[in-house]
Structure formats: structure tokens, C-alpha cells
Amino acid sequence: MSTIEATSLTKTFGSFTAVRDVDMSVGEGEVVCLLGPSGCGKTTTLRMIAGLESVTEGEVKIGGRVMNRLPPEKRDIAMVFQFYALYPSVSIGGNIEMPLYHLGLSAEERGREVARVAEILQLGEVLERLPGQLSEGEKQRAAVARAIVRDPNCFLFDEPLSRLDVEQRHSMRGQIKEVLSGLSKATVIVTHDQMEALTMANRIAIMRDGMIEQIGTPHEVFSQPRNVFVAGFIGSPKMNLLDGRLSTIKDGKATIELGADNVVFPVPAAAEALVGSHLTIGIRPRALEPVDSPSERSLTGQVELIEPMGAETLVHVRDEDERDLRVVLPRERKVAPGEVLHLACDLTQTHIFDDSGLAVR
Ligand code: ATP
């Protein structure tokens, strides 16, 4: 059974708590990405699962068995690190074959296994070469091949693509995803790159200060962020997060004072209790659209900066309260610096957070 479970996982270094009460379960064939800013505890969590770091409190189970006291080599896992250590004087084929030596296979069986994974990772042409004669992308694929060749129970990846250039990362993301989907193993990938997480993961665990802020499918964490931190972290360009005050609710619609603009939003019943209190309104940059005249769901400001992004343009609009609104427009929609824009909010893509930062639903 290829599963990974972490229960109340905690790690302290002296008086510092690097990981606090992490609960996470990874099912058979599932890929979970740990995503978060530098120092939030992603690698420490992965290292506890691997057995490279002791567990201060809590439990790690792999395949249903408690692993807390077992060394890494007894956990039946394979790890791929950012710094993949291929032996420089051994051919790529030899490097991939190495983990098979302990399994008592014949030379012929080993050769068959190497050929099998070389085909999966498109390394057939380079098996005779030394690591120094490979591109970074090929070396990365060789490291993955070496990890999967002995058919371990689970996979752990720590920033596997961070040494590759942008183009290689893009293609390796797809390749790793495809390889993993054919293997039906529980997999945890640590990354600080949200595109990597959004494309490779079945579920994403977003961490901050040693804790998981939200765990869910890429769609869930993007479209239903649990709190302001997740809302601001996921999505590019970043969600606009505006301070406001809920002044009234009438017929299920709330008037929210956003500085100079009053915007009327449909609100969930839970918002009734928040009348009079401060809120944060989250509006994605693609949920703002220029309209001819102001309305009860528009914000007004002046174009300050225009950044072409290929098919789209990122426009920074400064509103009357000196706030920077990020707006993404199709490239064909031309705007000029200094132009006044009325921006209608797509209310299906706006989020309301209470004064403690939690989403109001
Ligand atoms: P990054 O993305 O920068 O790799 P991370 O999210 O993987 O960060 P960790 O490496 O897990 O973060 O570190 C979490 C915190 O624990 C950091 O503040 C780090 O300095 C601290 N830490 C990690 N290892 C040790 C250690 N052996 N002793 C003391 N503190 C440590």
C-alpha cells in the first residue's frame, strides 16, 4: 500500500519550532506539493517523513506502518534532491543501475530494469555517457530514473527542478507529472514555485511558519482560499487585497466601503454578523474589467504603470486612496499612462475576509 500519513507532526530545534502540528495524508497515486515561502518548514517536514530528521512529536506512517524510529533505508522510499548526486565517473546507465545491486537481481534483470526506466525518462540515447556529458535536464531525468528503478513504495522530491532553466523546468514539470501518474505511488514534492505545484500536484499544502494554512486541490486553493495569506500567495499576478468596512447589508447584498468607492457585493449569510467591522476584499487581477461609466460594483483609478506580459498586459492602477490595483487586460485592450479607468469587479471572483483574515463564506 503506497500511502503517507503525517499526524500532528512537530519539529523543534532548541526553542525554535520549525514544524508545528502538521496533519497530512497522501493516498495511493496521489501527488501532494508542500508549497510556501522560504523557511516555512517544507524541507523539515519532508526530511521527517524520509527519516533524515527525527520527529519531536507526532507520527509518520508509510504504507500504514509507523516509521518514527526506522532509519531512511528501512522506509522503502526514494528521494530526489535539488542537488542530485550522480557519480561522476560512472556512466548514466551505471548510475541508474546502482540501487538494484542490493536486490539480488541478475545482470540481465538489472539491464532490463535500467532499459525500462530509461525508456520512461527518454534516456536511452545517453546511457553510455558520463554525467559530465549531459545537460542539466538530462541529469535531472537520470536522478529521477535512479529513484524509480527499484520500485519503492513512495517518492519524496525536494525542489527537484530548481537547478533547471525556465524552459527545462517547464518541460520537466510535465514529464515528471506523466511519469508519476503511471506509477501509482504516494508522492510528496517540496517546492516554493507555485506554477510547479499547480501543474504537478493533485493537492497542494500551503505552509507558513511551520503550519499548514490550507490543503486542497489546485482549483480549491486558488478559487476558495481559506484566508488572506493563501489568497495572496496563490495566483499570479497576486490578488488585490483591499481594506474595507462592511457598512450595511440589504437584500443579501453588502455595501462595502473601500475608501473612496462603495462597492455592493452579494454576501453569504455569515457576513450578517460583520456589519460595522473591518474586512479585506480580495479581487483577482483578471476579475477587474474596464467599463465606460462607474457603477455600484466598480472601482476608479488612474493608470500608473503598464507591463506587457505577452498575450496579456498587467496594468497598475492607482485609486483615489493611493492603493495600487493590479489589473490584467487582454493585449488588444490598449490603455495609456494617466488614463482614468472605471474597473467593474466580477463578483463571482471576489473574496471577503474577516478582520482576523479568515474567508467569510
Ligand atoms: P526553503 O524554501 O528556504 O528551503 P523551507 O520551507 O524548506 O525553506 P526548512 O528548511 O524546513 O524551510 O526550515 C524551516 C526553519 O527551520 C527555518 O527557519 C530554518 O532556519 C530552521 N531549521 C532548519 N534546519 C535547522 C537545524 N538543523 N537547526 C536549526 N534550525 C533549523
UniProtKB/TrEMBL annotation:
<dbReference type="Pfam" id="PF08402">
    <property type="entry name" value="TOBE_2"/>
</dbReference>
<dbReference type="GO" id="GO:0016887">
    <property type="term" value="F:ATP hydrolysis activity"/>
</dbReference>
<dbReference type="GO" id="GO:0005524">
    <property type="term" value="F:ATP binding"/>
</dbReference>
<keyword id="KW-0547">Nucleotide-binding</keyword>
<keyword id="KW-0813">Transport</keyword>
<dbReference type="InterPro" id="IPR027417">
    <property type="entry name" value="P-loop_NTPase"/>
</dbReference>
<keyword id="KW-0067">ATP-binding</keyword>
<dbReference type="InterPro" id="IPR008995">
    <property type="entry name" value="Mo/tungstate-bd_C_term_dom"/>
</dbReference>
<dbReference type="InterPro" id="IPR047641">
    <property type="entry name" value="ABC_transpr_MalK/UgpC-like"/>
</dbReference>
<dbReference type="Pfam" id="PF00005">
    <property type="entry name" value="ABC_tran"/>
</dbReference>
<dbReference type="InterPro" id="IPR012340">
    <property type="entry name" value="NA-bd_OB-fold"/>
</dbReference>
<keyword id="KW-1003">Cell membrane</keyword>
<dbReference type="GO" id="GO:0055052">
    <property type="term" value="C:ATP-binding cassette (ABC) transporter complex, substrate-binding subunit-containing"/>
</dbReference>
<protein>
    <submittedName>
        <fullName>ABC transporter ATP-binding protein</fullName>
    </submittedName>
</protein>
<dbReference type="InterPro" id="IPR003439">
    <property type="entry name" value="ABC_transporter-like_ATP-bd"/>
</dbReference>
<keyword id="KW-0472">Membrane</keyword>
<dbReference type="InterPro" id="IPR013611">
    <property type="entry name" value="Transp-assoc_OB_typ2"/>
</dbReference>
<comment type="similarity">
    <text>Belongs to the ABC transporter superfamily.</text>
</comment>
<dbReference type="GO" id="GO:0140359">
    <property type="term" value="F:ABC-type transporter activity"/>
</dbReference>
<keyword id="KW-1278">Translocase</keyword>
<feature type="domain" description="ABC transporter">
    <location>
        <begin position="4"/>
        <end position="234"/>
    </location>
</feature>
<dbReference type="InterPro" id="IPR003593">
    <property type="entry name" value="AAA+_ATPase"/>
</dbReference>
